[in-house]
Structures are given as structure tokens and as C-alpha cells.
Specification:
The complex is a heterodimer of chains A (227) and B (342).
Chain A: E1 5-10, E2 13-21, E3 34-37, E4 59-62, H1 80-94, E5 103-108, H2 110-121, E6 126-132, H3 161-166, H4 174-187, E7 194-196, H5 203-209, E8 215-216, H6 219-226
Parallel strand pairs in A: 3-4, 3-5, 5-6, 6-7, 7-8
Antiparallel strand pairs in A: 1-2, 2-4
Chain B: E1 12-13, E2 17-18, E3 52-58, E4 61-68, E5 75-79, H1 92-97, E6 102-106, H2 122-137, E7 142-147, H3 149-160, E8 165-171, H4 193-205, H5 216-226, H6 232-242, E9 243-246, E10 249-252, H7 269-274, E11 282-287, H8 299-302, E12 310-315, H9 322-325, H10 327-338
Helix pairs in contact in B: 5-6
The chains are: A alpha/beta (227), B alpha/beta (342).
């Protein structure tokens, strides 16, 4: 656990929100928090990564359910939507529960898909989301399949094997992903609240990138745009 | 299916910090508890407690199992619908057991007497189901019956692991293109901003939520609003088998974290695509009367999807709970279909 970590309660799960930078670089320059979301099977960084060191505001990173220092639940049952609700707890913490305050989110891999979802669901509080490469970016099929049903041996260690499997094969239809884009575009406080900065474009992400209002740019440009 | 929307909660801001304290419901009286039997259950004609009840460890989640009939008889598995529980089979299961079967049902995670799990999902329910299969069937194919969500889930499992099924009966659990009221929240397609915000707000409150208390008759009446075709005395029995009494009244046992409505990538019509390929004998039983808790599946939309060894019975003037409204008729159909328990 990093030196500055806040534990947030989400139903029966304790979530670790790591506060990587608590003060803005320049206290006289207005800024907003940046929230980092890790990829599938990964965990939050213990310090400010070099690729976002220029961000002018506070920086935090959330360990998803079953990952890092967050609770590893018994019996599985993961979904990206559940992780979106994880992020909602972090959003409330970083905005001090003020619905008029907003943050920027950078999601890697699975975290990019979850970032897209929260951008649509809490659009008025998301200044921008940046979707970049990382573990779990592809997800599962875009339609029904003859999926296997299984049980795993688990010992409570992180990352949870059920998370690795269930979040690695979740359904991600393109039109479902685009519905979050539409919500974000309609309700975000800024124009073009979604930026795709990944090299890999699985079907859901290609559909997002092709949607009206979605920006494609480099990570550094996106960070500058949403600061 | 208890009325989730009436969960009484102390509102907390997401993150778990209490910001205010509000009493959502008044203290409930319990003066209508008279007439309960020696087990504290409201009697109903032909309703019978399970002959055996026990807990089964299912890969980290405690699952409550209920059995009717001779312990040495061949097993028949039966799965309840979403927001229901195994004891809703108190009339139906004994009728199947009288046909020579050991009828095994269980409370899905978070329902009835099973553990309130940290997470809920279709995959999780499927996995719990396999634990019951492994415990009961010992690898042999057995007859399986499912109602509503239980029917849909068993249909998917029959597609994924047909070797476990001697035959499958799906009671009003064949989805079609409409919202499904008794599926878990992430398994829906509705994508409205207010749905998303409402769901997230609910998730923010669940750490401290509890079900709204009331008198026994209060809870029966609440459920009656969703099940207008079921008699009040039956609903009273459901309260006393699917609820518990505490100092301030009766509450449903179901996990307050579970909630109707929601959204997700899954589409109801996808379940229909699995039907034609099922290799085992299949019987669908549909109630022709559309109900709020039902799937709203028009029979003529289902019939073209019947498996090669399957057929569908449509019951006129019967609602979603076909086995509760017409237990003799439906148990007769099921027993005729599955054959003798040799």
C-alpha cells in the first residue's frame, strides 16, 4: 500500500484509492484531479508515472475490486459495470461529493473501457477521459457464444483469478460502447470529452473512435487538452 | 421477488461517509403474525416444508439447498427465478416428489437463505449451479426444471454443458425483445442516463442498506402489487419463508444490494438463439397472460425456435408463475414429460 491511501467502501468491498499527488503543481493555477485506472490483472502505480508527470493537478489511482490492495471477494461475479461503480466511489471522494466539480480520467486497457462507461454515466462530472493501451483492452466477444462454465481455486490473493477470466471475456458490443459515448457527448461540461490515444483498436474501441465527437490524439496532447 | 425499490437506507455519500440520517419507514407493528404454524410459517393448502435443508459450500459462497422427497430417489433439479427463492416451490415441489423424484432446489446467491455474496453476475449464478449439480447428480444426466430467470439460466447451461441434462423444462423463462424485470442489474440493455445514475446511486448506498420493514401483511401486499394474480394467503407464506422478523417488523431476506432494472451488454433475444440447438428433450411452459414480472414473450415468437426434440405448452389465463397458479396442471405436464424416475 502506498504512503497515502484512502480506503473507500463499495458495498462489501474496500477499495484502495492511492493518492499519488495530493497538491497541484502550482497552487495558483486552477487544476482538477486526474484519476488513473489500471488494466486487467494490474494494480495502481506507487508513484506518479512519468507519462503524466506534467499533469498540473492532484493525481490518484484506484485499485479495482479484486486487484491491488482492494478486497478480493470470494466466488467471483465480476463485470465492467461493477468496476464502473468502483470508479464512482473514487469520483465522489476526489470531488468531495460536490456534483459541480469534475475530474479527468485516464484508463489503460480494461480501465479504458471502464473509463468510457463512467464518462457516460456521470458525464456532468467527467471533464474528459483518455483511453490508452493496456491489459484487458480487447475484452470478450461482441455477441453470444457457447461459453464455458468453470470454477477456480482461489486463495484470496490479488489479482483474483475470477477477475482475470470474467473481465477478460465480458461482452463488448460496439453499439453498447457507443451508447456511453452518446451520453458523454450529450451531458459532459466540455466538448469532445472522450479521447482515444491507443494504438490497438478492438471492435468496441474502433466503434468508439469512429463516433462523432470522439478525438484521436497522443496521450500528451490529450492530457494537455483535459488539464 | 421483494420490492427492491422500498429498501430503507441511511443515505451515505459514495465512499461510505454518512452525510445524514433519515428514517425511511416507521416502526412496523407485527400484530398480524397470528395463525403461523409451529415453524413460524403462514400455512397454505398443500404447501409443505422441504424434507431436508442444508448449506453447500460453492467455491466461496454458501448456498442453501432444499430437498423434497425420498433422499434415495433419483434427483431432479429445480431453479427459481430472480428475486425469488426455493421455498416458492413449497406446493409445486412436493407434487413432483410424489412422482418418485428427489426434488432439489437452492437459493441463488443473495436470495433466500443463501449467503449475501460480494458480487453478483450471471456467470456467478452459473458457477453456483454447477456446484449443486456436482453435489446432487454425480456426473449423471438428470431432469432439470427452471422458472423465469432460472429457466433462462438453465437453458444457457444446457447449451454449454448438455451432458448434465436428461431433459429440460423451462417455465416462462424464455426471453424475447423486451426488458426483463428479474435479471441482475448489469444484464440489461436499457441505456438511459437516469438508469445509470440511479444504479450508481444505489451502489453508493448498499454498504449500509437494509430492506424496508413492515408487518407480515404489509410485505405480502407489497409483493402482491407485483404478483396480482397470486392469493394473499400464498403471499403471506412467502413472507414467512423468504423473510425474517426482527424488532421493527418483517423484512425480505434478499440482499439489499440486488436491484431490479439496470443495463448491460446482454440482449434478451440472445437466449432465444440457444434454443434450437439444444440436444436434450425440451419442454417450454408459457403463461399466456402478460405480467409485470414476466418476460412478455409472445408464444408465436418462440415456437419457431423449438429444438428438434422440443415443444411448448401455452397455458391460457395463466400468468408468469405458472407453477404457483396451476400446480396440478403444470406438475402433471412436467411429470408426463420427464417420464418415470427409473
Amino acid at each position: 500500500m502506498s504512503a497515502s491511501t484512502v480506503m473507500l467502501r463499495h458495498n462489501k468491498i474496500d477499495l484502495a484509492l492511492h493518492l499519488l499527488r495530493t497538491e497541484p503543481l502550482d497552487p495558483v493555477v486552477p487544476s482538477r484531479p486526474l484519476l488513473l485506472l489500471h488494466g486487467l490483472g494490474d494494480r495502481s502505480p506507487t508513484g506518479v508515472p512519468h507519462w503524466c508527470a506534467s499533469w498540473p493537478g492532484p493525481i490518484a489511482a484506484l485499485d479495482f475490486t479484486g486487484h491491488g490492495d482492494s478486497t478480493v471477494p470470494a466466488g467471483g461475479g465480476y463485470s465492467p459495470e461493477l468496476l464502473m461503480a468502483d470508479v464512482d466511489q473514487a469520483l465522489a471522494e476526489l470531488t468531495d461529493g460536490d456534483p459541480d466539480r469534475s475530474i479527468t480520467i485516464l484508463g489503460r486497457g480494461l480501465g479504458a473501457y471502464v473509463a468510457l462507461q463512467i464518462a457516460g454515466a456521470r458525464a456532468s462530472q467527467i471533464h474528459g477521459v483518455i483511453l490508452v493501451d493496456g491489459p484487458g483492452l480487447a475484452g470478450g466477444p461482441t455477441g453470444p457464444t457457447s461459453q464455458s462454465v468453470f470454477a477456480l481455486d482461489t486463495d484470496g490473493s490479488s489479482p483474483d483469478p475470477y477477475a482475470l477470466v470474467e473481465l477478460g471475456r465480458d461482452l463488448r458490443p460496439g453499439d453498447y460502447a457507443v451508447s456511453f459515448v452518446n451520453l458523454a457527448n450529450a451531458n459532459a461540461p466540455v466538448a469532445n470529452p472522450i479521447t482515444v490515444a491507443s494504438s490497438f483498436r478492438p471492435k468496441w474501441l474502433a466503434a468508439v473512435a469512429d463516433s462523432p465527437g470522439v478525438v484521436e490524439s497522443s496521450l500528451s496532447d490529450a492530457l494537455a487538452a483535459y488539464a | 421477488m421483494p420490492p427492491f425499490a422500498e429498501s430503507a437506507v441511511t443515505p451515505v455519500r459514495p465512499g461510505g461517509r454518512e452525510v445524514t440520517s433519515t428514517t425511511v419507514d416507521t416502526m412496523a407493528s407485527t400484530d398480524d403474525d397470528s395463525g403461523l404454524d409451529e415453524h413460524g410459517e403462514s400455512p397454505f393448502p398443500e404447501a409443505r416444508r422441504p424434507d431436508r435443508a442444508y448449506d453447500l459450500p460453492a467455491h466461496g459462497v454458501r448456498i442453501a439447498v432444499h430437498e423434497w422427497g425420498d433422499a434415495d430417489a433419483p434427483p431432479l433439479m429445480m431453479m427459481h427465478g430472480g428475486f425469488d427463492f426455493a421455498r416458492t416451490f413449497d406446493v409445486f415441489a412436493p407434487k413432483l416428489a410424489s412422482g418418485g423424484w428427489r426434488v432439489v432446489s437452492w437459493d441463488q446467491r443473495g436470495h433466500g437463505n443463501s449467503e449475501h455474496a460480494p458480487l453478483y453476475s450471471w456467470d456467478g449464478d452459473m458457477r453456483d449451479t454447477l456446484a449443486v449439480f456436482d453435489h446432487v447428480a454425480g456426473g449423471r444426466p438428470i431432469p432439470v426444471v427452471g422458472h423465469s430467470k432460472g429457466g433462462a439460466l438453465m437453458t444457457q447451461l444446457a447449451d454449454a454443458q448438455p451432458h448434465r441434462f436428461r431433459c429440460l423444462v423451462n417455465m416462462d423463462g424464455i426471453p424475447y425483445k423486451r426488458n426483463i424485470p428479474d435479471l441482475a442489474e448489469h444484464e440489461r440493455t436499457t441505456m438511459l442516463a437516469k438508469d445509470l445514475a440511479g444504479w450508481l446511486d444505489h451502489r453508493g448506498r448498499t454498504a449500509t442498506a437494509s430492506r424496508k420493514p413492515g408487518t407480515l401483511d404489509d410485505l405480502a401486499r407489497r409483493r402482491g402489487r407485483m404478483n396480482p394474480r397470486l392469493p394473499h394467503e400464498w403471499l403471506r407464506r412467502l413472507v414467512t419463508t423468504g423473510g425474517f422478523e426482527s424488532d421493527d417488523g418483517w423484512r425480505w431476506k434478499i440482499d439489499p444490494a440486488l436491484r431490479f432494472g439496470g443495463f448491460g451488454p446482454w440482449r434478451p433475444e440472445w437466449m432465444l438463439m440457444r434454443l434450437p440447438g439444444l440436444p436434450m428433450p425440451f419442454l417450454g411452459i408459457l403463461g399466456a397472460e402478460m405480467e409485470e414480472m414476466g418476460w412478455g414473450t409472445p408464444p408465436h415468437k418462440v415456437l419457431p425456435y423449438m429444438p428438434m426434440d422440443g415443444h411448448c405448452e401455452v397455458l391460457d389465463d395463466v400468468g408468469h408463475f405458472v407453477h404457483i397458479e396451476q400446480p396440478d396442471l403444470v406438475s402433471g405436464l412436467v411429470l408426463d414429460f420427464i417420464g418415470a424416475p427409473a
